[in-house]
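FAQ: What does a multi-protein file look like?

Like this. Sequence, then tokens, then the next protein.
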Amino acid sequence: MVDWTDDRIGALSDSGLKNLLANAERKSVDDLVARCRAELEKRNVSKPRKASSKARSGLKDFEHEMSLQLAVVGRRMAEKYDLSEETAKVKSAGVKGFRAHKLVGSDGHAKLGGLQRAGFVAIDRYISYRRCSDIVSLGVFLPKDQDISEHRFFVIAPQEVLDGGKPVDAIRDNHGQKQSADSALMFDDLEAAADAFDKVLARIAA
């Protein structure tokens, strides 16, 4: 039988230590069980705490809330303008390769943006509408490793329908990814962004 000294226990890998603890518990070797548990506890205390499941949970909660709020704006706009896929198809007849946009995702929330899907940013959620060749979108954006307070809202649309719009790449990092239109406006709050989105929709969907 192996003489399990403290030094020998301390030299085990985490998985080896857990296996030893399981065997000791099965054989009811109480002294060895106690020393294995003490070593595991010592290792857990010395390990750096992962920043945070709490922070990740907070980020997910924020993303969920923003997705809901963007969807609410979308429904408000859909009551004001005809943003149905059917109408978009009729109004865009003859446009080669036209595909109507669903205003929101299939779950009724804002859609997941390509930059978040590819892992470039922490949050990229948006709603969008397309008619003919014009694509307009309203979204929330948060770069990676930034505090939630650093999020911003964007309206992206063709330059001819977005007053004061600037090149999208000039006001945020798109990591080389092609965007749906050539200009954008950035906002600190959703209502101001929603107003700008409303004005754009009035030009292409009224």
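And here is the next protein:
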Amino acid sequence: MKKKSMSDDCHNFLKKCLLFDIEVNKRNVIYSIGAVHVGMSRARETLHLLKIDGVTNPHAEVFSGKFLQERRLLPSGNKERTSYRYALLGMEDLFIDYAGRRLENSAIRRALTVLNCGDVLSLAGRGDHLELVNNEGVSVARLSKKAKHIWDSRLEFIEEITIVAMIRRYRDDVDDEKFKNRCHGDMWEVPVVELSYRSLPTP
């Protein structure tokens, strides 16, 4: 008889993207860590972590943030809950040389220097563009035309925009010589952000 492996168990629960909370001890700690890791890295849209009353699993206690929704299952509970989705706005979604065209002592460039990972921004229409704005109302990045087309009609569904990385863009990396000559300074920063938004209604 073939011995059941951890990968077999992981494969089975990943079909439904469910992870059951199990009591952790020295014998199954490696199994439980592996199960959580595989589940989080393979789940395509949602991952359900099921906790059992009276059973302690330290891995289930480390999760926090708006992405996490907790609810107690009741026999008669059919209350609808808001479902959130996430999207990453990376370099291809931004006009990466937006700040480079501004003077080094401009409000935009100064605002970029104090931004950190975890800071919250908002998305606002400025003229014909969509721009990422800090809490003082200063635009710190501009969406590309393609990204603007995608998010223009979804603004009301966005819950939060969080900076996940600050990327340095160097003037020497600009290929267009004419455009390069219009940029100021040797480098500027570009915020990469994660958007959390409510699921769009079904048409």
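Q: Is there any per-entry metadata?
A: Some entries carry free-text notes. For the entry above: The CA atoms of residues 123 and 155 lie 8 Å apart.
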